[in-house]
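Section 5: illustrative case.
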């Protein structure tokens, strides 16, 4: 006689196995789609084989070369991206230095204009003061 607990565990395992097989089939479809997309852009990715016979038919040397080629392409792409980033950083650095020089030039020019403005304001105050003095002097001597 089979225990009821064992039967329920067995049915749970069967359900889990079915779900796992469905997930595997979905994963295989996604993997093969990704392999097709990568092959269209020149990347070599092995197809996902779902049975032992097809996995055994793969030439190990071919698989090794395919993996090494894939790694080499990924590394080359990474190096190219890093090189581009370095070049962009250098370009931005030179632009930043040029902008800083321009800021310093404009700052000096602004300080010069502020100095000239202060001097002219001082002269105006002096002239207005003298003008007031002469007006006062003229008023005193007219009477």
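Designed sequence:
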């Amino acid at each position: 006689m089979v225990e009821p607990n064992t039967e329920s565990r067995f049915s749970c395992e069967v359900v889990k196995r079915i779900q796992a097989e469905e997930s595997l089939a979905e994963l295989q479809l996604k993997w093969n789609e990704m392999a097709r997309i990568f092959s269209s852009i020149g990347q070599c990715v092995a197809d996902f084989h779902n049975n032992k016979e097809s996995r055994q038919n793969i030439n190990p040397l071919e698989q090794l070369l395919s993996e090494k080629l894939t790694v080499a392409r990924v590394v080359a792409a990474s190096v190219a991206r890093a090189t581009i980033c370095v070049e962009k950083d250098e370009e931005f650095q030179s632009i930043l230095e040029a902008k800083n020089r321009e800021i310093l030039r404009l700052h000096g020019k602004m300080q010069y204009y502020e100095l000239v403005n202060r001097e002219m304001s001082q002269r105006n105050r002096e002239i207005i003061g003298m003008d007031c003095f002469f007006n006062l002097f003229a008023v005193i001597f007219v009477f």
